[in-house]
Amino acid sequence: MSGEERTIVGPPAGRDQPRFAGFRTFAKLPRRQDVERCDIAVLGAPFDSASSFRPGGRFGPAAVREASMLLRVHNHALGVSPYAVAQVVDAGDAPASPVVPELGFAAIEAAAAELTREGARVVGIGGDHSVTLPLLRAADAARGPLGVVHFDAHTDTDDAAYGSRYTHGTVFRRAVEEELVDPRRAVQIGLRGTRFSDTALEQSAQLGYRQILAQGLDVEAAIATIREVVSGPTYVSIDIDVLDPAFGGLSSTPEIGGLTTRELLALLHGLAAPGIEIVAGDVVEVTPPYDPAGLGALAGANLAFELISLIALQR
Amino acid sequence: MSGEERTIVGPPAGRDQPRFAGFRTFAKLPRRQDVERCDIAVLGAPFDSASSFRPGGRFGPAAVREASMLLRVHNHALGVSPYAVAQVVDAGDAPASPVVPELGFAAIEAAAAELTREGARVVGIGGDHSVTLPLLRAADAARGPLGVVHFDAHTDTDDAAYGSRYTHGTVFRRAVEEELVDPRRAVQIGLRGTRFSDTALEQSAQLGYRQILAQGLDVEAAIATIREVVSGPTYVSIDIDVLDPAFGGLSSTPEIGGLTTRELLALLHGLAAPGIEIVAGDVVEVTPPYDPAGLGALAGANLAFELISLIALQR
Amino acid sequence: MSGEERTIVGPPAGRDQPRFAGFRTFAKLPRRQDVERCDIAVLGAPFDSASSFRPGGRFGPAAVREASMLLRVHNHALGVSPYAVAQVVDAGDAPASPVVPELGFAAIEAAAAELTREGARVVGIGGDHSVTLPLLRAADAARGPLGVVHFDAHTDTDDAAYGSRYTHGTVFRRAVEEELVDPRRAVQIGLRGTRFSDTALEQSAQLGYRQILAQGLDVEAAIATIREVVSGPTYVSIDIDVLDPAFGGLSSTPEIGGLTTRELLALLHGLAAPGIEIVAGDVVEVTPPYDPAGLGALAGANLAFELISLIALQR
Amino acid sequence: MSGEERTIVGPPAGRDQPRFAGFRTFAKLPRRQDVERCDIAVLGAPFDSASSFRPGGRFGPAAVREASMLLRVHNHALGVSPYAVAQVVDAGDAPASPVVPELGFAAIEAAAAELTREGARVVGIGGDHSVTLPLLRAADAARGPLGVVHFDAHTDTDDAAYGSRYTHGTVFRRAVEEELVDPRRAVQIGLRGTRFSDTALEQSAQLGYRQILAQGLDVEAAIATIREVVSGPTYVSIDIDVLDPAFGGLSSTPEIGGLTTRELLALLHGLAAPGIEIVAGDVVEVTPPYDPAGLGALAGANLAFELISLIALQR
Amino acid sequence: MSGEERTIVGPPAGRDQPRFAGFRTFAKLPRRQDVERCDIAVLGAPFDSASSFRPGGRFGPAAVREASMLLRVHNHALGVSPYAVAQVVDAGDAPASPVVPELGFAAIEAAAAELTREGARVVGIGGDHSVTLPLLRAADAARGPLGVVHFDAHTDTDDAAYGSRYTHGTVFRRAVEEELVDPRRAVQIGLRGTRFSDTALEQSAQLGYRQILAQGLDVEAAIATIREVVSGPTYVSIDIDVLDPAFGGLSSTPEIGGLTTRELLALLHGLAAPGIEIVAGDVVEVTPPYDPAGLGALAGANLAFELISLIALQR
Amino acid sequence: MSGEERTIVGPPAGRDQPRFAGFRTFAKLPRRQDVERCDIAVLGAPFDSASSFRPGGRFGPAAVREASMLLRVHNHALGVSPYAVAQVVDAGDAPASPVVPELGFAAIEAAAAELTREGARVVGIGGDHSVTLPLLRAADAARGPLGVVHFDAHTDTDDAAYGSRYTHGTVFRRAVEEELVDPRRAVQIGLRGTRFSDTALEQSAQLGYRQILAQGLDVEAAIATIREVVSGPTYVSIDIDVLDPAFGGLSSTPEIGGLTTRELLALLHGLAAPGIEIVAGDVVEVTPPYDPAGLGALAGANLAFELISLIALQR
Fold it and tell me: Does the distance separating the beta carbons of D98 and A52 come in below 8 Å?
């Protein structure tokens, strides 16, 4: 992100247009094609055909955009107005096939890679968690293995499921195998729930991930651990089910006993640290058909704004 | 609408982009600012502060756009592919104040008038039925009083309510008083429900409106009546509550005993007649918070497509 | 209902109070205790502990009252403004025990009997269909066996279920046995759905009920049959599931293939006939927890208004 | 289906068990493994990864089974108590991979083929409409090309979509190409809605399908056409979206202007004709997350019961 | 509130009437017109036409009354049975025009002022937060500027929005300007969320409000602050969105990261302090159409009961 | 539970069957009749006719089973894979009459007693809380008065309601009177909410129950208290409304200010203590019609798994 003189196009002022009116780009930001260049790009990854239980995440980007109408422009906790210091755009949705997963992944990777080549940092909006793999591939091309801060109820380090090695439950194993992620610089936070076996957690730890469980979570200690483990170019992946279902953690596989939004916001604010350079991230698993009060979409929109703010803060 | 050579921009092919992906312009049509000129413009009128019962119509345009993702491009019954023969655009939402109704009406009129001046025919998406008045004013400026085909459970010819002469229940009285509508060329179809007094229907008839009740409706006879009464430049206003609540007639003031979607589609197809020139129209009162299955939004999107098709057919 | 001079208290004028404001008595009518006497009384029977499948009908009266806020005062089809020609009141809810059915029935009968003794004709709002039995007992005391027009998907003439002879499926057998109903003057309309045996319909016919099936229903023919069979003092019982689930027939045991609201309204209007004296009636089985769009409550409120209108018309 | 002496196991009597209690096999029928042999088998096909719009059909079988608790045992219109004349079972769900469509199809075909080999006629419960292809393959093995009665808003005869030739929109083209279906003995009923091009309907007709549109549908004429066209071993496929969304036609791609349940029931009853031998069928596209009132599931359960009844009637 | 001998009319005993039965006055309390005088009055303010995002608050009073059926009569934490020590009534709804905001405000002020003149302390039920201004005007007439305890996600101290100086976002600026509130005795609690600018919080602080943010909230410290700042005649305004959306904070503009109900109850119990005299209060922004589980209404009913209890405790 | 050699049948491996497929026994466990003997039995108690407010708990067992599809097999916090060390089965639903409560209770007691005689420990799934009485009777027969850990917002120690001594609010008084419970070994946890009188809590304490309020709950202290008070054969009853409504505490009588799922899980894990032998338990009051996001069912399934795990741990 260079510092040359240029005009930044932000959302229309609330005074000009009621918040409920207008096209549903994320936060009413300009589309990618409406501006010459961009620093940060929101990219929809409407793909849910690698989910093992409830589908519907394909409508996550639309729901998050709708909920983003409620967002304002200033992040008080982080002290930044991201749209004022960076050109943020909505790059639309990757045209991901729902029927042929490999085509779906390729479309997401291509869309993210193009934005990355243009100099943008991509904040992906899923879609089920499998979309993180193509997003990581795109983010990673020029940066070497990335650190990861992975908020989730699940480790997502299974080897395969239902005949496929590419599902929403295998992405963080594949990411290590493909050397997209440096697991020594990676933390998984919010883990909980029933497990497929007594070694499920260990398998992830053996890959190298540091683990922080939801039960007994101490926010300050967790931030300290993150800052200790994670450094350098980093990817932040937020599975909405890191949140308790009460707070909108209504993913394809929700788990009780999760985090509150206050805890998650505090953890994210803790990522504003000198050694951590967020190069991309995502908010995934918002699953609108199972979210009657729109809590997941509302949380998702706010969490995307936090990621954008963290990236903008680095400028 | 002239016939000179020019390129028409339609929606992206379904092959290029899954229907659930992409920005939510109506039917994925280009925005007004994305093309040089337009023949037909969809305009959101997200205003519901003149509704007497259930609010929420301000989210009607967004819900109709979301449902329009399901629309394809060809109208079989009318034999027309409207986006191929006319430049149809989504002109976004008029920035209507929800707090100061007169400002709201002014914003809607201004947005519609600008499109009309550019040569476009406007299909408005409400919002409560009060938005028809500014839309009529804009449509009418250059055309003299218009004929009207008004689909509704209610006559909307009250004089005033709750201290205002401008509500969703007074619009067709005001339209006559302002000489926007020629009531001798106007039909109201689908009337039913309890009434405020035994003269409620008469008051509307005294203004000049021909009336067709829902109870005992005969589709063929109704089409004959419409064609007999209506002629010349005509405005078509569809209050979603002309439909039975079962079929999505979940307006701010729903009434049982309404039309089926098959009946309403047949009536609309009957408007494709030599003497009727549709210069503008609207679909109003889709009220998403009271529409858990999205039936009103789905019907609204299809009805807007029928209006667009009817206008395109005239080219 | 005598004809002496007296003041009738109706709902407040819509001009004085928005329809969404104010206490939720039925149609904003006065409570029983607010006026000296009454001609027609709406009585809630919030009892659902004799339902064989979905409970929730205990909240039917509250939901019908809430939906009745949408009702206006004039019945156009019947040509009557009932609150102007009769003192109509909301008599509140019978305090029916949900745990001890016999106490529940007794409370309903007592409340209805008291109103009947005061000269009022009672329009009951259920509650599951078992509440019709105590309502019939109260209506019947002074009038001998009544004719019945029974709108329902089911005959409700089982002998017993789940250890009880008093359930929502046995009420029209008990009513014959208790000589509350004269089955030679009784019609059941809207019957359909799967049956417990191949003789289910016959058993009801053997009790004497004339039967009109939903499949192949002809409204005019049905009215003719009703007028042929039914005469004298008559009870009209409307199980909301006579309507198709699409139109709000979301009772404790809904059945597909039901009537439309237009058909049901037409049938009810056909009851305005010289030989039929409606002495009481009910609308039952509105089951709010299974009615996300409120269609059953809206239909229920309108149907109660039709019953009130029919009774008022007889004055 | 042989006629030897044997005991048939039906559902428990309603007297023994309240309808809301007990395991959720279809209509509380025995599971396949609970009886020695079976004549008719309900088979869940919980697969929705070939749907082009709304997913969620994978929960269709569970929702249909839940709604089937309301079913009783006798079909009055057809005059048959199917569980008394045929051993009907619930064969559970095919373990269809949601991530690898080809594995999903194979699992469905294998499960249906095994039942067919055992002499059972299979009534499949989808799942999106793509599941009809493996069900047809299984049904067809020993019978040669089948006649088809196909109830649907769509022809489902596209060639490909989103990179795949096997989607819920291509199944009836593939079925002809694979010679599973004899299109000269095939009818499509209920077609309507916007189209991808002006030749969409023709393409299906060119494959040989006779077509009956929803708009202007005449039930008696449609039955006559079906009986004229269809004969011999026949497959009946019911896409729930042949119904209007109001009546539960809430598939992955719903269309307004559809059939009522009364119309569809009458059409199905018309299939009880000498020349038509129903060898298998399905009810597909029930999509629970988009069906807040459960109308699609309720219709689906009843429609499956009608298919079972039609097959039982042939014994 | 005088101490003379008189009979207090409370709700009917639960033994006499099931909680789900009976008219929906708040907590089944008598209406204003049913008793001679009153000490505490619940007043509905069903007005939502000054809301900037989601409307629907006009149905807040009805939803809160419905949820209040679950309330019992004794407040254990505060040690008071308010209906036994004070005559509490439900004064119904102010007849607020939804179309002409100034008429709406006038109606609310008039209704509250009349109750205040009669000696009652008013607990208002919104409606959007703009209703607090007329409620404050009525409460303030005889008492001079009031202290304020303001629970909210937002400061509501904007100057204007959408062409109006009187919206749900400007009320606490207007209240200072009109000298209804003494900002030196005023605290705002629960502030959070994105902001329109980096000075949004400061603008409110410059008006004089003490501010307590949701993030990092310490209940004991907050109570200490309140007791330090607030004294004398005090108004307590509870915007339901002080609660996290998870706990029912589903206002017209919900914000994640909010308070739990346990925290809010503890804070309210902290208001039972010698120096704080609560003269009136409100619970606003309950927005039923966006509250599918009724959490906001349930919380609202309980919070209103807490306000009533606090006032009753002062007697 | 003996230690002899035998094969344990667990759920099918997730690899063999997608989690959303297959019959809905609890956690896909075998039915009682599918295995020779069992150690732990899940028993549905679908009875809600003794509930004082919202009915619908009769569908609790079905909803909990549906949600249990999400459960995996290993309990990490307790370190046990219960289905591997004990034969756990789903014993189906007791056929409880909804119309005659005494028959309902008898059916539940009979079903539980038979399982107990067979050596199984029963985990009941309600149903309203009244089902705990017959479950306790069955559990108690051979063990003498039991200790109780009772998680609930309410004490459920009323004497009678609505004419009955057997309701969901009287069960823990009856249990003492019938000497099923030894109140000196009994704790009630999570108490809160409005009360019927100022002595409501005391009445329960006078029966002997130790009480822990929700307000100010300290998890560690609560566990210490439980371990101090409770010992020997113990029954664990979890009313879902011990949880805050936000977390799924959507019982027939929900109360704000409740526990989080993290707190409840920690408390349950604290029951794994040497002196406490859990002989049976239940999860009651899951009320699906009032639980639009399925939070109560999801919590209920997990809580039942915790009870099963605790019992399995004792082997």
Answer: yes
Longest CA–CA span in chain A (Å) reads 57
Residues of E whose CB is below 8 A from B99: 49-50, 52, 101, 161-164, 166-167
Q: Do A196 and F74 meet the contact criterion of CB atoms below 8 Å apart?
A: yes
Q: Check: CB of residue C115 under 8 Å from CB of residue C41.
A: yes
Which of these, D130, D69, D132, lies nearest to D294 by C-alpha position?
Answer: D69
B101 reaches E (C-beta below 8 A): yes
Closest approach of F114 to chain C, Cα-based (Å): 21
Q: Is B33 exposed, middle or buried (0-12, 13-18, 19+ CB in 10 A)?
A: exposed
pLDDT at residue A5 in the model: 56
Chain B hits for E50, Cβ within 8 Å:
99
Q: What is the DSSP string of D223-262?
A: HHHHHHH--EEEEEEEEGGGB-GGGT---SS--SS-B-HH
CA angle E90, E92, E97 (to 5 degrees): 155
Kindly list the distances between the CA atom of residue D158 and the CA atoms of A49, C110, D140, D207, E190, in Å, as whole numbers in the listed order: 21, 66, 22, 11, 56
Distance CA(A215)–CA(F315), nearest Å, equals: 25
Q: Across-strand partners of B74?
A: D195
Chain F residue closest in CA terms to D17:
F95
Residue B68 has pLDDT above 70, yes or no: yes
Inspect the interface and report whether the beta carbons of A197 and F74 lie closer than 8 Å.
yes
Model pLDDT for residues B251-274, shown as the tens digit of each residue:
999 999 999 999 999 999 999 999
Query: Environment class of residue D198 by beta-carbon count within 10 Å: exposed (0-12), middle (13-18) or buried (19+)?
Result: middle
Distance (Å, rounded) from C-alpha E131 to C-alpha E139? Answer: 12
Helix (H, G, I), strand (E, B) or coil at F97: coil
Instruction: Give the residue ranges of chain F where pLDDT is below 50.
Output: 1-3
Mean pLDDT, chain C, whole residue set? 95
Give D203-208's long-range contacts (Cβ < 8 A, gap of 24+): D203/D155, D203/D157, D204/D155, D204/D157, D204/D172, D207/D157, D207/D172, D207/D173, D207/D176, D207/D183, D208/D176, D208/D183, D208/D184
* β-sheet bridge partners, residue E189: E151, E212
Cβ F233 vs Cβ F281: under 8 Å: no
Q: Which of A64, A165, A54, E18 is nearest to C98 (CA)?
A: E18
Tell me which residue of A313, A308, A284 sits closest to A27, measured CA to CA. A308
Chain A neighbors of F72, CB-CB under 8 A: 193-196
pTM, rounded to two decimals: 0.97
ipTM of this complex prediction, to 2 decimal places = 0.96
- Residue D99 Cα, gap to closest chain A Cα (Å): 5
Chain D 61-100, residues with CB within 8 Å of chain C CB atoms:
69-77, 79, 81
How confident is the prediction along chain E (315 residues), in pLDDT tens digits per residue? 444 556 899 999 876 789 999 999 999 999 999 999 999 999 999 999 999 999 999 999 999 999 999 999 999 999 999 999 999 999 999 999 999 999 999 999 999 999 999 999 999 999 999 999 999 999 986 677 999 999 999 999 999 999 999 999 999 999 999 999 999 999 999 999 999 888 888 999 999 999 999 999 999 999 999 999 999 999 999 999 999 999 999 999 999 999 999 999 999 999 999 999 999 999 999 999 999 999 999 999 999 999 999 999 998
Q: Which residue of E has its CA nearest to B104?
A: E162
| CB-based contact A24:A69 (threshold 8 Å) | yes
Residue F311 CA to residue F38 CA, distance in Å, equals: 13
pLDDT of residue D68: 98
Q: CA distances (Å), B213 to each of B187, B193, B202, C76, in order? A: 11, 10, 13, 11
Nearest CA among A132, A208, A212, A206 for reference residue A169: A132
Tell me how far apart the alpha carbons of residues B219 and E233 are, in angstroms, rounded to a whole number: 67
Q: Within 13 Å of residue C164, how many CA atoms lie on the same side as its CB?
A: 25
The pLDDT score that the predictor gives to residue D48 is 98
